[in-house]
Design goal:
Blueprint (H helix, E strand, L loop, with lengths): L7 E4 L1 H6 L6 H11 L3 E4 L1 H10 L2 H12 L3 E3 L6 H9 L4 H18 L4 E3 L3 H14 L6 E3 L11
Parallel strand pairs: 1-2, 1-4, 2-3, 4-5
Helix pairs in contact: 2-4, 6-7
């Protein structure tokens, strides 16, 4: 990605919560999103998740993003077919629950640039393992700020 390329990202609550610790890679990721011309997609479901995980730092970051017009409110893109397929594919119930809980990230990514910033490799791995069974073929770029810099977005 060239400097200055604006992307609309989905930021998982795992990043919002982890950024509250002493300087971390999640805090740096949020700082980078604020400093670069990136925006974040904000659905009602994502904001509900963030509200449960905000720290003082991430709440201030959210206010800064909002005041700069860098939050993009979106209506949920209901992936009813995806939800329906999830309920019918033969998988362990624990895995089904993990996928069901975080499908809101996939929904938001479908209405944005298909980039999810998350520390939750478990969800990513389960989703990627079952995406074919779910009939999901849109490309999703996963950024884990613990392992990757924000400038790794291509």
């Amino acid at each position: 990605m060239t400097e200055g390329t604006s992307r609309v990202l989905v930021v998982d609550s795992s990043v919002i919560q982890s950024a509250g610790s002493s300087p971390t890679s999640c805090r740096k990721a949020l700082e980078d999103i604020l400093a670069i011309c990136h925006h974040v997609v904000l659905t009602e479901k994502i904001l509900e998740e963030w509200n449960r995980h905000f720290t003082n730092y991430s709440l201030n970051w959210y206010f800064d993003m909002t005041s700069r017009g860098k939050t993009d409110p979106k209506n949920e893109t209901e992936l009813g077919e995806l939800q329906q397929k999830l309920s019918t594919i033969p998988i362990d119930e624990d895995i089904r629950n993990i996928l069901k809980k975080d499908l809101l990230l996939i929904e938001a990514a479908c209405s944005a640039d298909g980039i999810i910033v998350t520390c939750d490799d478990r969800f990513k791995n389960h989703f990627n393992n079952h995406r074919e069974s779910l009939g999901f073929n849109k490309e999703i770029i996963w950024i884990n700020p613990v392992r990757q810099e924000m400038n790794s977005i291509t």
